[in-house]
């Protein structure tokens, strides 16, 4: 079995590679060329364990994830991905699930920006300066010529390390600013990304600030979690979702639907945009909203690509079980 750690994975693929893999995953999803049950969630007080299996191509995969929102010295989201040969049942690879999740979730946000925002956007704001937020910004800066980034985090002590990691991986001309309040961040940004595990909205509940902006929510993955404020929905015509499971899983989808602010017909599968079954035209008179809760198929497709690239580059370490 091939074991791929963080160093091997980052040497094997780029963010652009992962985004191309995610396009293939959306095509598999739209054409129903996969098997994937709803993920299992186990709650341990405020901490969550998730099991995410999937079958596609020549592989089974299982991602085991832990989400510990109070972590300070470790990433909030951690895990591992096991890749198994579909023909023999033998384990092919064990991958660092923390890195894989960061890359593929970043690629999800990057694709949302690619398909749903104008090509000339220059500014992006991020709420939540954790591990997931880093990869969101790296993906956006891969797909757009961003010149200004605005950050907001409730724990200000996280800024220095986060900014240092950003500067190490972005062009020096990209300006990085700390916003005093979320409202300042929204007003300055063309694209707003939320990457938190908050149970209450992290964006300002202001009505007249959202039109002509793309809002990408990647944090809330349980019914009690919310990142979006009530005001965001008031002028929304639809929400793009990476999977209809978000309707059951995320408070950012369930909450407005339970209040009849939006209907299920206004939830548009993003796979239909990627496969050109839905044509999206960016509008300046309403917000464009994308909500992701992720799915195991994404992990499988990215893990397969990393496994194949690692073999070709002769990287990683083999172990016998």
TrEMBL record:
<protein>
    <recommendedName>
        <fullName>Ornithine cyclodeaminase</fullName>
    </recommendedName>
</protein>
<dbReference type="GO" id="GO:0005737">
    <property type="term" value="C:cytoplasm"/>
</dbReference>
<dbReference type="Pfam" id="PF02423">
    <property type="entry name" value="OCD_Mu_crystall"/>
</dbReference>
<dbReference type="InterPro" id="IPR036291">
    <property type="entry name" value="NAD(P)-bd_dom_sf"/>
</dbReference>
<dbReference type="InterPro" id="IPR003462">
    <property type="entry name" value="ODC_Mu_crystall"/>
</dbReference>
<dbReference type="InterPro" id="IPR023401">
    <property type="entry name" value="ODC_N"/>
</dbReference>
């Amino acid at each position: 079995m091939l074991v791929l750690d963080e160093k091997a994975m980052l040497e094997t693929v780029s963010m652009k590679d992962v985004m191309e893999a995610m396009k293939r995953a959306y095509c598999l999803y739209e054409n129903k060329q996969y098997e994937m049950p709803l993920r299992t969630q186990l709650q341990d007080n405020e901490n969550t364990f998730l099991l995410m299996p999937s079958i596609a191509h020549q592989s089974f995969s299982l991602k085991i994830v832990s989400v510990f929102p109070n972590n300070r010295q470790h990433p909030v989201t951690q895990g591992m991905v096991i890749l198994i040969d579909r023909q023999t049942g033998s384990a092919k690879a064990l991958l660092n699930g923390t890195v894989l999740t960061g890359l593929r979730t970043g690629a999800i946000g990057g694709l949302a920006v690619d398909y749903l925002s104008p090509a000339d956007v220059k500014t992006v704001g991020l709420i939540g300066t954790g591990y997931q937020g880093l990869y969101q910004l790296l993906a956006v800066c891969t797909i757009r010529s961003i010149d200004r980034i605005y950050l907001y985090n409730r724990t200000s002590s996280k800024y220095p390390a986060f900014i240092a990691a950003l500067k190490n991986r972005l062009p020096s001309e990209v300006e990085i600013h700390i916003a005093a309040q979320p409202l300042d961040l929204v007003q300055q940004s063309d694209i707003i990304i939320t990457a938190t595990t908050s149970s209450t909205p992290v964006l300002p509940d202001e009505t007249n600030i959202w039109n002509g902006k793309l809002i990408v929510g990647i944090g809330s993955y349980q019914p009690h979690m919310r990142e979006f404020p009530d005001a965001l929905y008031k002028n929304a015509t639809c929400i793009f979702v990476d999977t209809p499971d978000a309707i059951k899983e995320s408070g950012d989808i369930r909450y407005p639907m339970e209040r009849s602010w939006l209907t299920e017909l206004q939830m548009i599968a993003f796979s239909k945009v990627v496969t050109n079954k839905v044509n999206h035209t960016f509008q300046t008179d309403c917000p464009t909203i994308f909500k992701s809760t992720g799915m195991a198929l994404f992990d499988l497709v990215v893990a397969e690509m990393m496994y194949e690239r690692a073999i070709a580059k002769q990287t990683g370490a083999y172990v016998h079980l």
